[in-house]
């Protein structure tokens, strides 16, 4: 007579046992994370801190192994590897995310942000959160955003105004928007991976490039392009992304551990950034760099046609309007 309840409890316990067993089996995971920045870069430091936190919070069951310095290739390659299941996580700048989700092109719009506070309000507020969801259907999920200051031009000869850029060959993270920036300034854009810019500058394949101060110094581009013009044309953040397959295959608990550690890494990275800019500037000067203060007006004017292009394209116009709406909050 007791068979029925016994059977019922057996039926119940078997799937339960199986679930807990399979959870235990997948609980121990090592996530592979590759990026193209130097180990001294504050994004690397923030990722390193995140990896430690994940390991601690999971009681050693979750680990993140970081492959820095482009040893697995540039973002183009690592994003593809992630989509193919060969890598779990990587870092891409907004420009590098643009081929997957056009919304990210908005960060290449010159002089879009009024100041640093406006930029951070966008990046870490509702607009930024919505932007981060744009890759979900592309096979990867954005889980952290990192500030990257402003990008400026640097070259072998001084650039004091757009007129000086006429005929120059400038390396960019090539996208339709960044290419147009260079063309509007009278120069021509060159598609060269981050890790090959030093040699390209040294051999005279290009005349200049553009980046923030930490990347200018840490890549040693300063040795081969001594003039850094502070035109600050764009503010392009970096994103930490994880393969959707990996993310969706995790338990809620595992996802919560990663989400919290990723959030903490954002805070830590922001704390380090400003100091890193000052430090890189000083170090670059010690190596002979000249920082040139310029009137941004001629750059702003030359680049203003990009705003008309964005207004004409509904898919990006809405993001531009959303960001502009955050300017005076
Ligand atoms: C910056 C940015 C990187 C990007 C690089 C580049 O350093 O942080 O994410 O890859 O610029 O210009 O390629």
Task: Provide structural commentary.
Keywords: Signal. The protein has helices at 3-27, 42-57, 75-83, 94-97, 116-124, 126-132, 176-184, 197-202, 213-218, 244-248, 252-286, 297-303, 305-312, 314-324; strands at 29-34, 62-67, 89-93, 140-146, 151-155, 169-172, 188-191, 208-211, 227-234, 238-243, 290-292. It folds into two domains: 28-148 and 236-278, D-Maltodextrin-Binding Protein, domain 2 (3-Layer(aba) Sandwich), CATH 3.40.190; 151-235 and 280-324, D-Maltodextrin-Binding Protein, domain 2. The protein contains 14 helices and eleven strands. Helix 2 (42-57) runs antiparallel to helix 11 (252-286) and helix 5 crosses helix 6. With 329 residues, it is α/β, with parallel strands linked by helices. The strands form three sheets. The protein has a five-stranded mixed sheet, sandwiched between helices. The chain has a four-stranded mixed sheet with strand order 8-5-9-11. A two-stranded parallel sheet has the order 6-7. The structure holds alpha-D-glucopyranuronic acid.
Strand segment count: 11
Q: From the 3D coordinates, which CATH architecture of the largest domain would you assign?
A: 3-Layer(aba) Sandwich
Spatial strand sequence of the major β-sheet: 2-1-3-10-4
What would the principal axes of the Cα set say about the shape?
globular
Task: Name the ligand types.
Answer: alpha-D-glucopyranuronic acid
Largest sheet: 5 strands, mixed
* C-alpha end-to-end distance: 71 Å
Output mean pLDDT.
92
